[in-house]
Amino acid sequence: MTEQDLVDVDTHDPGDGSLSVFRWKQAGRADLATRRQLREMGLRPGGQASVARIECRGGRRFAWLYRIDLAKPKLPMTLEKEAALDKAMAARQTCPGPCRRRYFHCIPLKTLGSCLECYDGTPADPATPTTSTCSPPDPRGHQPMTTDTPDTPGADEAIRYTADVVLFAAGHTLLVLRGWDPYEGYWALPGGHVDIGETSLAAAARELEEEAGIAVPVADLRQVGAFDAPGRDPRGRYVSVAYTATLPATVTPTAGDDATAARWWPLDALPDLAFDHAEILAAAAAR
User: Fold this and answer.
1) For the chain, how far is it from start to end, CA to CA, in angstroms?
2) Contact, 194 vs 164, CB < 8 A?
3) Which of 73, 90, 119 delimits the end of a domain?
4) Which is deepest, 66, 98, 108, 128, by most CB within 10 Å?
């Protein structure tokens, strides 16, 4: 073997054209960073596609890696963004159960679906009156921040902004399996919340890549329409802008983020879908 026969090999490259995969703390690439690392540097991905991913916990958890040189400065905070951030945190801190309290910490909605008191009767701090709207935090963390949320359905009309994607290929459509309520165990379209400073189009492409591992350029996504019927989501008032795209052939999806599984389903043999996603899919197919 001569020196000319030696070839550099990337041991992290799967060799099938998909993204390189690194183990936790083994990326060894000073030019790459996760979203959290970019935020700590005062940066954001800025619309660029991820170039690799890093895994931990045996591959059960992972994060996308982005090029630092293509990142853009974080957008400045405004009063409108602070209000939107507070609404987003309220959705994670407010119990949807009978108590309807908002806590200082995020409650385990993904695993329990409610606060501990509504789940198994573990009481909140008895020193805090249930009518208090500004209580000091409990050092144990189990302390309601406010309890004046109206009990009347529909009284809280805070609108949450989401994006969904209908991806077609060879007579199939891509669906992801939801891992928690609402609709735990149901198949749904890839999608999720629109981040602060993000358009619904950019959010649709990002959620598709995060939940199914499939990158589709935003230029290939076509808007289907806005879906805003009251009651379409049991968590409250959600307005979703749906997009669609068609691939020449199916590609192997990789479930991530909020999805526990991802697969292609034949259009003539679809399962029951979560939310109003059957309506969204039908509207996309009719285009």
Assistant:
1) 59
2) no
3) 73
4) 66
